[in-house]
User: Fold this.
Amino acid sequence: MDKEKARAVLSEALQPYRARSYAELRDLIGQVDVCEIVNSDGPDFQIEIQAFWDDKPNGNICVSGGIDDGGWSAFAPLGEDFILAPDGSFVAE
Assistant:
């Protein structure tokens, strides 16, 4: 898997989640969003994005994304995440 390209695709897929409010992300907790990116010049990618409480309910929310190309990378997908505090600020950025 081309890790540089995969990292760019995953970052782009996470951007709409970064734009969501705390309440919108809270509503996603317990769900997994899965999508497939068809790549015209290489292997396709599968992306999974999920939100969960970082430490305790009604605290910080962690949004985590993973990407793989369906090959061996599916066993160890490339990941990226961010944490949003209840006040709408990003933690540790």
User: Anything to note?
Assistant: The beta strands are 32-37, 45-53, 61-68, 78-84. The helical segments are 3-18, 22-26. The chain has one domain: 3-84.
